[in-house]
Amino acid sequence: PETATPGGGGGGGGGGTSSEPMETDPTQAEASEAAAEAVEAAAVGANFITQCFWLTGRALHLGLVSRFDRMEALHRQYGQAFHNLRATEGAHPEEDRRLAALRRHIVVVEAACLEPGLLESSFQYLGAAARFLTASVGHAAAGGARLKMPWVPEHMLSDLCLLASNVSRFAPEQLGPASAAATDKAGSLTGVASPLESLFECLVSLLGPWPSGLKVANPHVLAQMGECLYEVFLEPGAKPPAPPGHPTLPSHGAQHLLRSSALSSGPLAGRLVALYGAVEHIGEQDKLKTRVEVSRLLKFLWGCGHVEAFREVAQQEDVFGKFSNGVMNETNKLIAMVMEKLPEVRTSQLLMADSGGWQALSAEDRQAALDRLRAAEGQIKYVMPLCNESLEMLVYLTSDVSIRGEMLGQPRLLGRLATMLLSVLVQLVGSRGLEIKVDNPEQYQFRPKQMLQDLLRTVLNFWAHPTHTAAAQAASLGGGGSAAACGAGALFKEALASSAYYATNPGVLAKAASTVRKNKFLNSKDCDALDALVHAVKQASAALASSEAELGEVPPHMEDPLTYECMADPVRLP
Question: What span, in angstroms and rounded, lies between the C-alpha atoms of 5 and 149?
Fold first, then answer.
């Protein structure tokens, strides 16, 4: 029984030690007894090693993984406090006593979590648990009963991901030695793969559905799996540069797996595409973070030459259609948010640049202006990475003729792509161009030049490849060129001309073409092709307007009630 400690805050007076047992809630006692009976029942027939395996997993969850959660929370708390103090006029975060105390607390927690011997033992268990989970998938495929699982142990998978990700984030220099030491100890006896190799195989295997029909259903665990692939296995060169003052991420022996593993050239790309959509409802910030990581993983796989895997995904019309629509929807929404916040930043910067007007404001007004500026800057910084990655993704995906062909085979998808490209062009080179010219845009990762290049390269992928001139396009129409090139150019031209954004902003393509030629954002060959596209779209739009004037209004029974488009094959519902 527990006893009161001297000086404790019991119900009566002061100190002293009492030997009276504390009262126990009968409900809690019954629950504890039931839990103990359940553990004993589950242990029947389980040998000593099996019990040690699961108890070690439980100890890891309650011990090291829990402490990592605490350490991450402390880092967030410190970062938020430092940010708030820096945004306060006249404050000096480096001299704040509370921040100094918090830094000391973080050092103590890190010393307990990142002890090399503890990490070495933890990685030995990580490798064993990853092999167990992978074997469960393999036996399900082979119809084996020995490891047949009635459910996916998501709690174990989550702990493995959090352990590896946190070590990679907080002590990347320990990741290689801990994994290598565990390999030396375990591999010398069993000849098994290293813990990180086992973890990689486990993550790729469990990202897809098991042959038995089971799958990881919790989207938060799926997000943790994507984060682990990104943090642990993506090469440092494929990640953004570390901020000034932060150590450069070291390499370790398992980072070759994304480049050379058969799993990377096979199912991984398709499973990452599925993961992009699976995290839709995990919360806005977590969703954006996961999608940025997935986008960078996909870009790395593409750069490593695993293009055939992407082609296989593109052939799955339902999967690729949902993924493409998701990318375009996200890009449209985030670009609109950025364009809404950039004028706020510019207004605040102009106000602060006017020293006389700034000093004339009261202290409360200056602080309110600073708060508005920090809030707008924070939102822009958070969403711009995904905007940049999404636009770059469209460039390399549409550079492949097979993937372009799959997109051309889905007219609605092609129309949405044309609308999205024109929408972003209107935001970048439209009438509000001066309102988004902020000081030092790179600090927000806002790169309008690169964004414009990516947009127009995507356009040219459909129009100018493999032919680059309007004459060559016409030759294709006459049978003197590639029918595929002609079809791609004609279909994309019609999609642009029929877009509502082009109808309301007919000069946007011409202005974009003039901007890139004037500033030499593209080479002269691509600029010529872009000029040819501008002319062709203008003619197509005029022909479309003439046809609509001749045909008159769309009959009500042919008009889509949601999109107000003319339906090609209308069906009347009963």
Answer: 47
Please write the tens of the pLDDT for every residue from 32-80. Answer: 565 555 555 555 566 888 889 999 999 999 999 999 999 888 888 888 8
DSSP-H helix ranges across 482-523 = 483-497, 500-504, 508-519
CA distance 100 to 96: 6
Q: How far apart are CA 491 and CA 181, in angstroms?
A: 58
Q: What is the 3-state secondary structure (H, E, C) of 45-93?
A: CCCHHHHHHHHHHHHHHHHHHHHHHHHHHHHHHHHHHHHHHHCCCCCCH
pLDDT digits over 476-509, tens only? 333 333 334 446 678 888 888 888 888 888 888 9
Q: How far is CA 519 from the centre of its chain?
A: 32
The first and second tokens of residue 49, run together, are 């090693």
**Helix (H, G, I), strand (E, B), or coil: what is residue 238?**
helix
Query: Rounded to 5 degrees, what angle do the CA atoms 407, 410, 411 make?
Result: 110
User: Residue 445: what are its φ and ψ, rounded to 5°?
Assistant: 60, 25
Q: Which of 328, 267, 273, 333 is nearest to 299 (CA)?
A: 273
Neighbours of 454 (CB within 10 A): 21
Name the residue with tokens 């100190």: 15
Structure tokens of 476?
A: 């294709």
Q: What is the DSSP letter of 536?
A: H
CB 244 within 8 A of CB 180: no
Contact between 207 and 148 under an 8 Å Cβ cutoff? The reply is: no
Q: Are 345 and 376 in contact (CB under 8 A)?
A: yes
User: Ramachandran region of residue 194, left (φ > 0), alpha (ψ -120 to 50) or beta?
Assistant: beta
- Give, in degrees to the nearest 5, the angle at Cα 47 between 42 and 51: 60
Residue 204 CA to its chain's centroid (Å): 17
Which tokens is 286 given? 């977590």
Mean pLDDT, to the nearest integer, of 142-170? 77
CA-based Rg of the chain, rounded to a whole angstrom?
30
Q: Are 573 and 533 in contact (CB under 8 A)?
A: no
Coil, strand or helix at 479:
coil
Q: Would you state the structure tokens that stand for residue 223, as one six-digit string?
A: 């997000």
Q: Read out DSSP for 9-31?
A: --SSSS-----PPPP--HHHHHH
How far, in Å, CA of 96 to CA of 115, rounded?
29
pTM of the predicted structure, to 2 decimals:
0.81
